[in-house]
C-alpha cells in the first residue's frame, strides 16, 4: 500500500499489507496472547495502560504532526486526537479498578446470584482514515482494561499513523513482559478486513466507516453470532433558535462544518435557522467562510487542510454538481481551489448551500457527504426543525442553540432529537471521551469510549451460588420423585 500526503500528493511511504496467511497467524497469536493476558489482574492491566498513556503523551506533538502529514487535518486537531487517546487511557486506568459486576438477591434461601464480567477474547478494530489514532485508542484502552487481545486493521490510507501508535504501545508491552500480540496490527485493504470480520476467532468487531461497508460487516458478524460495534455515517444538524447567542453559535457552526475539512463523523452537515435570525446568521457565517484560506496543515494558523484523498474530492464535486443541477443556491464555495498552495493537494472550498427545498426527503438531505458542505434551511417552529432533524436515516449528533429552558426540555425529551449525541449550545462535533460516543438508526447503534461502553468488551455470566444444604428449584417448582 502507498501512503500519500494529501497536502502535496507526494508519496510518503510504501507499506506491506498482510497476506491471508499472515493475517491468520496474527489472529492465532492474538488468541494465545489473550489466554495469557486474561489472567493478569485488571489493576495491573491498568498500570500498563498508565504507562501507555505516558508514552503517548511524550510523543503527543510528533504523533499529532504525523496525523496532519498523513491524514491532512490541521496540527491542533492532530495533536487533539492524540490527546483523546491519552484521555481514554486515563479513563481506562480508573476503569481497571471499577469494572464491577453485581450481587443480585436470590429468591431461594441460602443462594446468591453474581453477575460476573470476564475478559472476552480477541477484539478486532477496523478504523477509518479521518481519526487514524483516536478511534483505535477508544477501543484499545477499554479492550486492554477488560483483559482482551486487540487486533487493529486501520484504514489502508493511514498506515503510518497505525505503525507509529503500535510501536509506542508495543514498547510498553515489551517493558512489562506482555506479549506484543495483546495489541497487534495488520495492514491491508478490503480482503484483510473481510477475513478479520468473518473470523470465528474474533469475539468482537468494532467497525468505524461508511454505512455501506458497515451493513456488510454487521451481517457477516451476525451470521457467525459474533458481537459488533458499528460507528457509521453521521448527517448532523444544528438548529438555531431566535433567542440563541449568535456570537457563540456562529463560530461553533463554522468549526462543526469546516473543521477537519468536514471529515468528522460528527461534522455539521445541516443547518436549520429560525426565520427571524437567518439573514444575519448567514451573513456573519459567510464572512467567517471567506476568511478561510487553504494551507499546509502543519503550519500554525492554518484552519483548512486538504481533503484526505482524490476520491474525497470526487465525492465533493459530485455533491456540488447535484446541488447545482437541483437548483440549490450556493452562497459561498462550490469549487476546488484553482490556486491551492500545493498544486497536487486535495483542497476544496468550504461550501454553504441552500437546497431548492427544505423537505428532508431528497437525496441532498438524506445523504452524508464526507466533505465541507453545509446545507441550510429556514424554519418557523422548533417542532418543524426537530422533525427535519430526525427525518434522515442517520442518527449520530445534533445541536440546538437556545437560551430558553422550554426548548431545551423539548429537544432532549421523548419528542426531541433522536440522535446518540444531543447537544445544547455546543456544536455537533468534538465530543469528550467521558460519555458514550455513537449514534442511533443507520449510524449503527454502537457506543464506544465512555459511559457504559466497556460492558461490551467483556463476557458476562450470571452465576447462581448455593451456600445452603438444600437444593430448591426456582419459581417453587416441585420435581421430587
Ligand atoms: C469520528 O469522526 O469518527 O466528537 C470521531 C468528535 C471526536 C470524534 C469523532 N471526538 O468529533
From TrEMBL:
CDD domains: ALDH_F7_AASADH (cd07130). Its EC number is 1.2.1.3. Residues 2-460 form the Aldehyde dehydrogenase domain. It is an enzyme of class 1 (oxidoreductase). The keyword NAD applies. Signal peptide: none annotated. GO terms for molecular function: aldehyde dehydrogenase (NAD+) activity. It comes from the Eukaryota. The keyword Lipid biosynthesis does not apply. InterPro entries: Ald_DH/histidinol_DH, Ald_DH_C, Ald_DH_CS_GLU, Ald_DH_N, Aldehyde_DH_dom, ALDH7A1-like. The active site is at 231. Keywords: NAD, Oxidoreductase. SUPFAM superfamilies: ALDH-like. Belongs to the aldehyde dehydrogenase family. Homotetramer. This is aldehyde dehydrogenase (NAD(+)). The lineage of its organism: Eukaryota, Fungi, Dikarya, Basidiomycota, Agaricomycotina.
Amino acid at each position: 500500500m502507498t501512503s500519500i500526503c494529501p497536502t502535496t500528493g507526494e508519496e510518503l511511504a510504501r507499506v506491506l499489507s498482510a497476506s491471508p496467511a499472515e493475517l491468520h497467524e496474527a489472529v492465532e497469536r492474538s488468541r494465545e496472547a489473550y489466554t495469557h493476558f486474561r489472567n493478569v489482574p485488571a489493576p495491573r492491566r491498568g498500570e500498563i495502560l498508565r504507562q501507555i498513556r505516558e508514552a503517548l503523551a511524550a510523543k503527543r506533538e510528533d504523533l499529532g504532526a504525523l496525523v496532519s502529514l498523513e491524514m491532512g487535518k490541521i496540527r491542533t486537531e492532530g495533536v487533539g486526537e492524540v490527546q483523546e487517546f491519552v484521555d481514554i487511557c486515563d479513563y481506562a486506568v480508573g476503569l481497571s479498578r471499577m469494572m464491577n459486576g453485581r450481587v443480585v438477591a436470590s429468591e431461594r434461601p441460602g443462594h446468591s446470584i453474581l453477575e460476573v464480567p470476564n475478559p472476552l477474547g480477541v477484539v478486532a478494530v477496523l478504523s477509518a482514515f479521518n481519526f487514524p489514532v483516536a478511534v483505535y485508542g477508544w477501543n484499545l484502552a477499554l479492550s486492554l482494561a477488560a483483559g482482551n487481545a486487540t487486533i487493529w486493521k486501520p484504514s489502508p490510507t493511514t498506515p503510518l499513523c497505525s505503525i507509529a501508535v503500535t510501536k509506542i504501545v508495543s514498547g510498553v508491552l515489551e517493558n512489562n513482559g506482555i506479549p506484543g500480540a495483546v495489541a497487534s496490527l495488520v495492514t491491508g485493504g478490503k480482503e484483510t478486513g473481510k477475513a478479520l470480520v468473518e473470523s470465528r476467532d474474533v469475539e468482537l468487531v468494532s467497525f468505524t466507516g461508511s454505512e455501506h461497508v458497515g451493513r456488510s460487516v454487521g451481517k457477516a458478524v451476525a451470521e457467525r453470532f459474533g458481537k459488533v460495534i458499528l460507528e457509521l455515517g453521521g448527517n448532523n444538524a444544528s438548529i438555531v433558535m431566535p433567542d440563541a447567542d449568535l456570537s457563540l453559535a456562529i463560530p461553533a457552526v463554522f468549526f462543526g462544518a469546516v473543521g477537519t475539512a468536514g471529515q468528522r463523523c460528527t461534522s455539521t452537515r445541516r443547518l436549520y435557522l429560525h426565520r427571524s435570525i437567518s439573514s444575519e446568521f448567514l451573513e456573519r457565517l459567510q464572512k467567517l467562510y471567506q476568511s478561510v484560506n487553504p494551507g499546509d496543515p502543519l503550519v500554525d494558523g492554518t484552519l483548512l487542510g486538504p481533503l484526505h484523498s482524490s476520491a474525497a474530492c470526487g465525492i465533493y464535486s459530485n455533491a456540488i454538481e447535484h446541488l447545482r443541477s437541483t437548483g440549490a443556491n450556493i452562497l459561498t464555495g462550490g469549487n476546488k481551489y484553482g490556486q491551492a498552495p500545493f498544486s497536487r493537494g486535495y483542497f476544496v472550498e468550504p461550501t454553504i448551500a441552500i437546497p431548492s427545498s427544505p423537505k428532508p426527503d431528497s437525496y441532498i438531505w438524506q445523504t452524508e457527504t464526507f466533505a465541507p458542505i453545509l446545507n441550510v434551511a429556514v424554519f418557523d417552529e422548533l417542532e418543524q426543525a426537530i422533525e427535519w432533524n430526525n427525518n434522515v436515516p442517520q442518527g449520530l449528533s445534533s445541536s440546538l442553540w437556545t437560551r430558553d429552558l422550554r426548548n431545551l426540555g423539548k429537544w432532549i425529551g421523548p419528542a426531541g432529537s433522536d440522535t446518540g449525541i444531543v447537544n445544547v449550545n455546543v456544536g455537533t462535533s468534538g465530543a469528550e471521551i467521558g460519555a458514550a460516543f455513537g449514534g442511533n438508526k443507520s449510524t449503527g447503534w454502537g457506543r464506544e469510549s465512555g459511559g457504559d461502553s466497556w460492558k461490551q468488551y467483556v463476557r458476562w455470566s450470571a452465576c447462581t451460588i448455593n451456600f445452603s444444604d438444600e437444593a430448591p428449584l426456582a419459581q417453587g417448582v416441585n420435581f421430587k420423585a
